[in-house]
Amino acid sequence: MAVFDWFKNDLIIVDSQIDNAHFDADILKSKGTKEALKHFLRVADTGIQGIRIQTTIPEANNHQLQSAATLLTIHKAYDDTGHVVREVEIPLTQESTGTQRIVLIALAILNAQLQHQNKTIFFDEFETGLHEEMLVALVAFFNSEQNENQFVITSHQIDLLDQQLRVDQIYFTEKNFRGESDLYSVFDYGDDLSRSDIAFSKRYRKGQFGAVPIIYSDELNKALRL
């Protein structure tokens, strides 16, 4: 039973498909949470001034529909002279992929904090739509003392290997001839290859850790030629 409870209550998955349906709108009812999210979005250079929840109530005679919550982002609107004239609201689904990802990542972290921490949060294709500066800042937060959750990220962003990660935090995957993926840690390579004073990304590109796809560019060009 404890295992089922963990999957239900302590596991949060944010994949590469933009979907905010699994976030409870109630997490933004707290003034403190809304202010924290607003501050995060401002310092993340998104241009978003705030978030509002729009709840759609079904008509009284339609018993099959449930109320739905829509996330709206709030932006400043300027006139030709650069003065703010009003605020406009945009559905989160109409924002760029990167902005949507930033909002959902922030909501996942705040959601975990509201539920008293100790969550395991998976980010699939972590770099999707995000600038490298944002990736670096988030990884630094994941490794900070204030973080009490466990984060697991999958990524093809090689430079993240050099972001002050411990060797036991870095894992590679490589497919064998059957198409099965093996998972192994830099820690398993011993002291010679797991030394953190030499850039992991440089050694990875040299093939010292494996897990490098073999791409035959000349043959690829031929294959795409009609």
Description:
The chain has helices spanning 2-9, 31-43, 97-114, 132-142, 191-194, 200-205, 217-223, and strands spanning 11-14, 50-56, 68-78, 84-91, 120-123, 150-153, 171-175, 181-185. With 226 residues, the protein is an alpha/beta fold. The chain has one domain (1-159): Rossmann fold, CATH 3.40.50. A hairpin with a 5-residue loop joins strand 7 (171-175) and strand 8. The longest helix is centred in the middle third of the chain and has 18 residues, at 97-114. The model has no long low-confidence stretch (mean pLDDT 83).
Write the layout of secondary structure elements.
Elements: H1 2-9, E1 11-14, H2 31-43, E2 50-56, E3 68-78, E4 84-91, H3 97-114, E5 120-123, H4 132-142, E6 150-153, E7 171-175, E8 181-185, H5 191-194, H6 200-205, H7 217-223
Parallel strand pairs: 1-5, 5-6
Antiparallel strand pairs: 2-3, 3-4, 7-8
What is the CATH class? Alpha Beta
Count every beta strand, where a strand is a DSSP E run of 2 or more residues. 8
Main beta-sheet annotation:
3 strands, parallel
Number of helices: 7
How many domains, in number, for the residues?
A: 1
CATH fold description: Rossmann fold
Main-sheet strand order equals 1-5-6
How much strand content do the residues show? 15-25%
CATH architecture: 3-Layer(aba) Sandwich
Distance between the termini: 57 Å
Q: What share of the residues lie within helices? A: 25-40%
Q: What's the helix-strand series?
A: HEHEEEHEHEEEHHH
Any idea what the radius of gyration is? 22 Å
Q: What is the residue-averaged pLDDT?
A: 83
Shape: globular
> Which secondary-structure class do the elements indicate?
alpha/beta
Low-confidence stretches: none
InterPro entries: ATPase_AAA_core, P-loop_NTPase
Domain ATPase AAA-type core: 88-162
GO molecular function: ATP binding; ATP hydrolysis activity
Pfam families: AAA_21
